[in-house]
Amino acid sequence: MTTAYTFDILVLGAGLAGMRAALAAHEGGAKVAILTKVHPVRSHSNAAQGGINAALTDRGDTWEDHAFDTVKGSDFLGDQDAIEILAEEAGQDILALEHMGVIFNRNDEGRLGTRRFGGQKRARTFFVSDFTGQAILHVLYEQILKANLPVFEEWFATSVVRDDDGRCAGVVAFEIRSGQFAFVKAKVVIIAAGGLGRVFEPSTNAMICTGDGMAIAYRAGTPLMDMEMVQYHPTTLKGKGLLITEAARGEGAYLINKDGERFMEQYAPNMMELASRDVISRAEQIEINEGRGINGCVLLDCRHLGKRVIHERLGQIFEEAKTFANIDLTEEPIPIRPGMHYSMGGIKTDVDGRCWDPQGGWKGVPGLFAAGETACLSLHGGNRLGANSLLDTVVFGRRTGSCAAAYAQSVEEPRVNNSVSDKDHNMVQEFLKRKAHADTVAAIRLDLGVTMNKHLGVFRDEEGMEEAQGLLPVFRDRWNRVAIQDKGRVFNTSLVQALELGMMLDCAQTIVRGAMIRTESRGAHFRTDCIQRDDENWLKHILMYHNPKGLPRMDYLPVRITQWKPQVRVY
Amino acid sequence: MPTTFRIKRFNPESESPQPYFQEYELETEQSDTVLDALIKIRESVDESLALRCSCRGAICGSCGMRINGHATLACKTKVVSLESPDGTVQVEPMNNMPVIKDLVTDMGGFWDKIRQVQPWLQPAGPKPDAEYIASPESMKHLTGVMGCIMCGACVSDCAALEVDHQFIGPAALAKAYRFVADPRDGASDSRLLALNTPGGMWDCTRCMECIEVCPKEVGAMDRIMDLRAKGIDQGMPSTCGSRHAEVFADLIEHKGRLDEPLLAMRTFGLKNIGQMLSFLPMTLRALVRGKLPRSGPLHRAIPGIDRIRRLFRHTRNLP
């Protein structure tokens, strides 16, 4: 009943990181396939609006400045060797994208133009209007078509398989359209399955961002790192939490409170609205908590930018504000508030995407690689700078694909029986057989999301996190018993959502656990019960290993510092 | 407010799979989109309702479907914005593609047609050391068509595709235009030649549905017209399509209105005996019903034709 496929490399996920990795691995001579639960152009990289950073030396910028801004933005939790690579290789990757066909905005000389972005002293953000992610995603997909790489479209991966030696041997997955399970054997699996935004409600993230990649890697025995670091974006719409790009502030928009004051003067007098995201989100939340907001929001004012700038450079959010908030940005300020946006944490990798340490400093799964938001190098540490995530995906997607191709040539085929998929297949059968009762996947997911947003949001404390910690086993127990109405095999979206919820519960546990253990405030992790950064005890990463019988097993790694000693962080 | 949703369902696993409509009564809020409503139905009434959705913000292109008869994105359509005679909201899968289940369609054919236009940049000459130099206007112009999210709405509602499955369709043609109009691309001539064939750019019937339904204002039909103009400008070999356009304009310039028999004769050529004979049955039927259009000397120029000719001269002299 099980089909089997064999490749050198299987890439899970077809967003920017996944497709970039697949192309690099293909160029490296490997036999590559992509497996993704949605069609590649539906991936969430689409939603990146503002741009992609690079310090180009011919513009008088230096990679060191970009690296320092990133280190400072990370609140000194980012690993500086990885950040140096990111900043130094950014230029070549931007040019590679341009050569592939990305229609980056041009200046009057016909060369690439830039805009300003938060947490950075220079304008080094390259962009396509305010749909940069979509513009790059579609071009990378064009390159996938050109290379004619096989894509398993709308397939859902249920687990990473390891062989008897503990090496990665492929994944088990099923085709959503037919319900058919398969074992996809591969010497290398590159996980590039994006973030976990839906663990929180609301979130800017698409409904597909359910932490699947992180969860299946974690279950396979590789550690997740710094999971407590969850970014709240300063400008999201009330209600569903849709994103309003930082590019609005990059182009000069103001944040004002109900009295019309540009309140960032109080919190970040130098950088104002372009301070880093954690700083602005906290400032907004304080304004709202202290009664200077309007219905739980503050205001983003774009009016003075003028119609031309708004239509040419912020066209998508103009439409978004009109459609979803019924507001004309050129006439009225728009209510916004901080909203869950990005996971700095993820699957621990080295600077080539490996999820194991060849030197043995930490343990993982040989043959497993990861890139993009799923991964944690750590580049972004405690707080990611805007427009560094797209850069992360292309630089480390490429590096991961190249390294994976070389690795695949150096190892033999994994030896595994095709029946490895039976376990997951049986698990799904068991799910489908459960008798219906009152509880639903949607209800559990909502309870989880609301709990996480309430207790693991912009401000955290021991008491709230303990409450969340106490509720997680309850949610898990409900998930263990919940039934789904749809018993069919074809395009059973309820089944997919039930499995996703299982992934989200694993991710949630690591977030809560990490946040409780880290008894300091750093970057996006702000505890009102310990408000200071504590470099003496916490200039280190928290690694978590899956423990099917209880709480995750912990380990720690020091932050790698090359040239920037931690200093007081002001904007 | 209470709203009735009339949803076209299809379950391929049922004993005799046939599409049918199912109604759901739902309390909706002022801010709800059709997608919000469908999700509420799926979460609280009927989990088996299948649809694709992801971003909720009109950027991923997953939730293309037909709402009250027109293709659109469910996430971009407010329930309150809809009007229908009986107050119900009718939701159906996209047209011009097979249905897999409920509102989920098979877009394999859609992507096959995108692939046909070789949708990747094909630059002439070696890559420069730095970026390609391109005017800011040219890149800004392309953002319009790069805004396409491949949702399929234009293809769903394309009237030409409904009768001619070979037609490559508005999405693929807009994608082709994206390269033809890119100053960095070196393959414009071969791209245009490939589209100057049956099923290509001349098969659009200019019904404007693709412009009407596009949620991202890509304006596919306008891009198709741009492709045709570029083709003619580049001296592409004439086809029925390009001759049709030229003869059409010529007849209007001379008579101020269309001489349909002459249009057909000049487009296909009188010597094209087979084609001319194939018109015979239709001509006879039209004659019997008294609907045969006048032609030739019987079909005179309209009064004030001078003014129309002046318009033509003026348009030709435009930069």
Structure, described:
The complex is a heterodimer of chains A (571) and B (319). Chain A is α/β, with parallel strands linked by helices and 571 residues long. Helix content of chain A is 36%, strand content 17%. Among the domains of chain A are: 242-339, Flavocytochrome C3, Chain A, domain 1, CATH 3.90.700; 420-534, Methane Monooxygenase Hydroxylase, Chain G, domain 1. Chain A has 16 helices and 19 strands. In chain A, strands 1, 2, 6, 7, 8, 9 and 16 form a seven-stranded mixed β-sheet that branches. In chain A, a hairpin with a 7-residue loop joins strand 18 (540-545) and strand 19 (553-558). In chain A, helix 13 runs parallel beside helix 15. The N and C termini of chain A lie far apart (60 Å). Chain B is of the alpha+beta class. Chain B folds into three domains: 2-105, Ubiquitin-like (UB roll) (Roll), CATH 3.10.20; 108-233, Alpha-helical ferredoxin (Fumarate Reductase Iron-sulfur Protein, Chain B, domain 2); 240-317, no CATH class. In chain B, the strands form two sheets. A five-stranded mixed β-sheet of chain B has the order 2-1-5-3-4. Chains A and B meet through helix 3, helix 4 and helix 10 of A and helix 1 and helix 3 of B.
